[in-house]
Amino acid sequence: MDSFSSPSIGSSSSNISSSDLMDQLKTQLAQAYAEEFLETVRGKCFEKCITKPSSSLGGSESSCISRCVDRYIEATGIISRALFNAPH
Amino acid sequence: MDPSALNSAEMQRLLNQEKEKAMVNEMLAKLTSECWDKCISSAPGSKFSSSESACLSNCAQRYMDMSLIIMKRFQSMH
Q1: Do B25 and A21 touch (CB under 8 A)?
Q2: For position A39, which CATH number holds?
Q3: How large is the ipTM?
Q4: Is the dihedral of CA A58, A64, A68, A70 positive or negative?
Q5: DSSP states along B2-69
Q6: Is residue A10 in some structural domain?
Q7: Residue A2 in domain
Q8: Which domain covers residue A72, as residue numbers?
Q9: Would residue A64 count as lying in a domain?
Q10: Could B5 and A18 be called an inter-chain contact, meaning their C-beta atoms sit closer than 8 Å?
């Protein structure tokens, strides 16, 4: 079962409550966002840190990747604060 | 749950809430991606330079300014 499928809502044997349904929805949304975020970070850090792929991952490439992940998370926070704290 | 409960006002309210949260989340993700591309030119360091963090913050705010202009212009065409 993939992360987006769920028990059929219309089936007569379904006992899911609406709060359970909402919980499932929120969980699946959170999972989808985490996946999307990871995919974005992969793309950005590959672009910045692995400029000339060689036969193995170098030490400088590895530390660049670590910094890149930290910076991207930090950038998300900066953008978030700029969007939600700055009234216009 | 009776399938007709999906149409209840309460359910619609909860779903709309989630839809709004999803839209906000999407905008944050897209904006972070675009502003990263615009503002972070070199390989990431152990912290942002002050110009990099200023750029990121400015980027988000200028995007909102632009959105407003676009909306007004679009509305003035009707």
Answers
A1: no
A2: 1.10.287.810
A3: 0.88
A4: positive
A5: -GGGGGSHHHHHHHHHHHHHHHHHHHHHHHHHHHHHHH--S---SS--HHHHHHHHHHHHHHHHHHHH
A6: no
A7: no
A8: 24-85
A9: yes
A10: yes
Number of domains in chain A: 1
The minimum CA-CA distance between B68 and chain A, rounded to whole Å, is: 10
* Interface-testing mutation among A71, A73, A74, A88, with chain B (most B C-beta atoms within 10 A): A71
Q: pLDDT over 90 for what percent of chain B?
A: 81
| B1 and chain A in contact, CB less than 8 A | yes
Q: Using the beta-carbon criterion (under 8 Å), do B1 and A17 form an inter-chain contact?
A: yes
Which tokens in the block code for residue B73? 């212009």
pLDDT digits (tens, 9 = 90+) for A52-71: 999 999 999 999 999 999 99
Predicted confidence (pLDDT) at residue B62 exceeds the cutoff of 90: yes
Are residues A14 and A7 in contact, defined by beta-carbon separation less than 8 angstroms? yes
Chain A residues within 8 A of B68 when measuring between CB atoms:
88
Q: How far apart are CA A22 and CA A20, in angstroms?
A: 5
* Cβ within 8 Å, pair B1-A16: yes
Query: Is the pTM above the cut of 0.90?
Result: no
Is the minimum CB–CB distance between B34 and chain A shorter than 8 Å?
no
Q: How far is A75 from chain B (nearest CA, A)?
A: 7
Which pair of structure tokens corresponds to residue A16? 């899911």
